[in-house]
Amino acid sequence: MTTYDWIVVGGGVAGSALAYELVKLGSSVLLLEQFAAPKNGTRYSYGGIAYWSGNTPLAQQLCQEGIEIHRQLSDELEGDTQFRELDLVLVIEPGEDVGAIAQSYRSCWIPPQPISVEFACELEPLLNPAALGGALHTTHGHVSPEATTLAYQQAFRRLGGEMRLAQVTGFVREGDRTTGITTPTGTLSATGVIVSAGGWSRILLRQAGLSVRIYFSQAELIETPPNTPTQTHTLIMPAALKRFEQEAAAGAADARWNQPNQEVVPPILDEGVIQFKDGRIRIGQVTRMISSLEPEVDAAASESALRQAVGRFLPSLKEVPGTWSRCPVAFSGDRLPLVGPVPGAEGMHLFSGFSNPFAIMPPLARRYARHLVEQPDPLLEGLSPGRFGT
């Protein structure tokens, strides 16, 4: 039986990027994905590269490295990631304190700048000026999440990597050491196993009896068909994002995650819109924190809330034909991913929990592969899954 150097569990953009970087360094790598038609956070991502948003020295360094990688990644992978840079308009509702909101971004590497309502509507003619109390502006990177993942996977295979469709049902353990994984059709062996399964990461680790502070939200959104005739010109997001505060609160309520089907913290709605090169528009998002991967949700009510909220700012999108969907999204609770060995499980690693994935994941995939194969990288110490203690 073949023993791989690494088995990477999860074929989303994070797992695919890390598998590519490992095989590029000469490792034998098996990449596993459980769904032929992915249902993960990559599939429903906005694909935004918020490289401007790094607000600590570590985040700023990774964001700088990330945007430089994206600018040449299509050439490196020999596959079009559909990279571009476009205007980001952060909308502010009437009555909100524009100055205070702008000040909250001052620690960013490239702080968004206040602009007039009139200029915001010049940048995005679909905006309703009556719904705006102000706006901020910066330049934002963007890729197609699906195209980027496919480009990583194709480059991975060209270098000799192997990819299979298989569900991981468990881990092979010899004492505290992980030596492989089990699937419905058999056992696969490896020197090391890396869990990069997004929203499924917590469930896999819990089934193995491992307690790691990684969580998952349910992101709910509407996607229009390709070639939607309505044309946006910018990426639209709320300036006062609620999601990061929600993630922090959910991470602080760790005990509730171990109870079945619990609402850990109340849901939030952050209105956002992005149109892809093929004309699809993704409208989101409602974010729920429930301790079940498939909670019962009133899809019609969720879709109505999304349409009402986005319709205030962009009236032409209120009734645009589209399909409501949801997916689990991994996060850690402190806005930093979990990258490193899993405590108490020698040979098992975690590469998941990216709250700002496309900005910082590519450089971390590159750094972590080198860390595992060539030499330790001190920058990764602060991202260890053990940083929260027990």
What secondary-structure arrangement, pairings included, does this model have?
Layout: E1 3-9, H1 13-24, E2 29-33, E3 48-49, H2 57-77, E4 84-92, H3 98-103, E5 113-115, H4 117-123, E6 134-142, H5 145-158, E7 162-165, E8 170-174, E9 177-183, E10 186-195, H6 201-207, E11 215-223, E12 235-238, H7 243-252, E13 263-275, E14 281-290, H8 299-313, E15 323-331, E16 338-341, E17 348-352, H9 357-373
Parallel strand pairs: 1-2, 1-10, 2-7, 4-12, 10-17
Antiparallel strand pairs: 3-6, 4-6, 5-6, 8-9, 9-10, 11-14, 11-15, 13-14, 16-17
Helix pairs in contact: 1-5, 1-9, 2-9
Précis, in short:
The protein is 28% helix and 29% strand. The chain folds into 2 domains: 3-80 and 145-213 and 334-388, FAD/NAD(P)-binding domain, CATH 3.50.50.60; 85-140 and 215-331, 2-Layer Sandwich (D-Amino Acid Oxidase, Chain A, domain 2), CATH 3.30.9. The chain has 390 residues and is an alpha/beta fold.
Keywords:
390 residues; D-Amino Acid Oxidase, Chain A, domain 2
